[in-house]
Design a protein that fits this description.
With 295 residues, the protein is of the alpha/beta class. The protein has 2 domains: 240 residues, 3-Layer(aba) Sandwich (Rossmann fold); 50 residues, no CATH class. It is 37% helix and 20% strand. The relative contact order is 0.15.
Amino acid sequence: MRLVPAGAPTPEAAAALAAELPPLLVRAERIAATLAAGAHGRRRAGAGDRFWQYRPYAPGDPPARIAWRLAARSGLPAPRGWYVRESEWEAAATVAIWADAGPRMCWRSDPGLPEKQERALLLALALGAALLRAEERVVAAGAGPARPAWGRAALPRLGGEIAAAGGGWPAAAALPARARLVLVGDFLGPLPPLAALLEQQAAHGGGGVLMQVLDPAEETLPYAGRLRFEGLAGETPVLAPRAEALRDGYAARLAARRAALAALGGRFGFTLLGHRTDRPAGGALLAAWQALAGR
């Protein structure tokens, strides 16, 4: 038996992915709609543009913040009838999203499962849709300067930019200062380039989320018998006389990789999350949302 996943992306594959983008956007919107996505308000007074409450005037409050119409209706003598408008303090940092479109992502172990690339893009789009619904600023992380998107109408443009930017690691220097960065991929490649990116992102004042997307076969290695394993990124093929004999060692290597990712993320302010392509995308979206909200 020969396990040969899909090959490296070609212009034809890129065109096919572009054709699939509109249906993915619809699915992403549906998943985002299941998330009770309000703004990241902290429900306390501060710098923001959303009205929160009125409070009684206190000496030193600027006259421009006094609600003069409300004071006139109160019928109380000044300054007893004066009230000040307070706005809600909000976390307004931009969120940058990147979905891996490298050759290792173009694989699935079963025709009934989505490819890792498709699921990573769906998660990225759904998170972007949820953030846009919450009136957050969102950008597609790539090699070039990021263009912020606002409002639900910006999702198609944002989706196209995310789909087009996933061929290589994004450039932290191209992101807005203090942006939170969300990386969606399998993270099975060399760690030094990822470590360099996270260090640069931390130097710009932002942390973020690492969402590892794996096929179920990449977690359980359910194969048996004589198999030839071929990589997608030019790795040397491996011939296994008894594939089942590799299972325990493989599980230990995968656990070690996850531990290394968690430690690397923790060092630079990133939260590691996991997702399998045979599970609903909604749970992973909620986990990413809570991680960005600091819960």
